[in-house]
Amino acid sequence: xxxxxxxxxxxxxxxxxxxxxxxxxxxxxxxxxxxxxxxxxxxxxxxxxxxxxxxxxxxxxxxxxxxxxxxxxxxxxxxxxxxxxxxxxxxxxxxxxxxxxxxxxxxxxxxxxxxxxxxxxxxxxxxxxxxxxxxxxxxxxxxxxxxxxxxxxxxxxxxxxxxxxxxxxxxxxxxxxxxxxxxxxxxxxxxxxxxxxxxxxxxxxxxxxxxxxxxxxxxxxxxxxxxxxxxxxxxxxxxxxxxxxxxxxxxxxxxxxxxxxxxxxxxxxxxxxxxxxxxxxx
Length: 282
Prior knowledge:
This protein is mainly α. It has 15 helices and no strands. The chain is globular and about 55 Å long.
């Protein structure tokens, strides 16, 4: 966009509304955080949720890229003082100023979401990991920075947490993504399991889908264990940023249950289980 007045997308909600409606895990994580940082955490999580839901708001990738560029332009103008005409953007600007959040990480979150618009999958697991590091990993790292000054281990812990939590959420959303014509999976792994994209998009994975998902679940569990090891070196307050990791096993339990249909059922967990595990983790 140019330097003139920016037009706010009409369906951008406030920070509170966005997180509560689209990311219940992090909504509760923010509510359970110390009062002094709740608004900043809510702004960061709302920003992440807003980026994630863009593919569901547009009819073609070009419109999604337009919205991503809107956020890039907004970030350039954020100084915590100037009102940008969107409550969510204003809240994020305050969080950036109050906690000295590095804009390159936030810009990386925006850039990563171009893959959501393409929806054609990732060449291999390493490419999927890179996407998760820039999207979910940045959310974990910035949360830790808001809660407490980041130390040397935050990035490593954030990347491991991003892989564990991100893989689980991708598996949970598989039916919704397939119905929308998107595949957020590593294509080389699909090929190794003799799974065709056309099958997935038609809601038919065949018997090969079960071992494929089991392999992804194994990657998620290994990454979760690595994240817990890395978190041991962090400031105890910063560890609260990683509370959603406590839900990984609960999601996997649902995904691996005998009555779960991976291409028909969007996996979710009991709200009371979510609250209890996040409360304990926080």
